[in-house]
Automatic annotation (TrEMBL):
Keywords: DNA-binding. Residues 109-128 are annotated as: Disordered. This is DNA-binding protein. GO terms for molecular function: DNA binding.
Length: 186
């Protein structure tokens, strides 16, 4: 790899860390290990082509352009956490992944989607977290972290609440955004 390609890859991984909390290669490898997948199966569950998944993992591409795919990534992260904690078996995880492939990416703000899978492959959902991740995916699909921070600075004096919203949901960690969201619910 030449110096220009290496610099481009490092920049993409830095952007991924800003947008997704870590480089996508690291995140996807952990999902593969935790959920007993291979790259082709992960690509299928996410709704990506195998070459696109490979480009995201290697840093040849920085951003997941489709908010529905971002939601599926988040749903798989939640599922992997349940598997690691022993609350979901491997068989249940397989069924849940099929559900994620079919259903994740719908508008979680609509009443019909505030619950998740049911039956033996059910994974408990935090409705606040689902809403927050929908907002994050939407913001991050239209602007990167630098642009969101810039917009927040511009709005800071005249519209401080809107600036805070952009910073919290556009750049901060999901945990912080969930805390913010829950503190503003009546």
């Amino acid at each position: 790899m030449d110096a220009v390609q290496q610099e481009s890859t490092e920049k993409a991984r830095e952007q991924q860390t800003t947008w997704y909390g870590e480089p996508l290669g690291t995140l996807f490898r952990r999902l593969i290990a935790d959920l007993g997948l291979n790259q082709a199966r992960l690509a299928g569950v996410l709704g990506l082509s195998a070459p696109m998944l490979s480009q995201l993992m290697s840093g040849q591409r920085a951003k997941i352009g489709n908010p529905a795919v971002v939601q599926r990534v988040r749903a798989l992260q939640d599922l992997a956490a349940e598997v690691r904690a022993g609350r979901v078996s491997a068989a249940e995880a397989t069924g849940a992944m099929d559900d994620i492939r079919r259903t994740a990416g719908g508008n979680v703000l609509s009443p019909a989607s505030t619950s998740t899978r049911s039956g033996p492959s059910a994974v408990p959902a935090n409705p606040s977290k689902r809403v927050v991740r929908e907002i994050q995916a939407l913001l991050r699909s239209v602007a990167d972290a630098t642009e969101i921070q810039s917009a927040a600075r511009v709005l800071g004096d005249s519209h401080p609440e809107l600036a805070e919203f952009l910073r919290v949901y556009g750049v901060a960690r999901t945990r912080e955004a969930v805390e913010h969201y829950e503190s503003h619910q009546g």
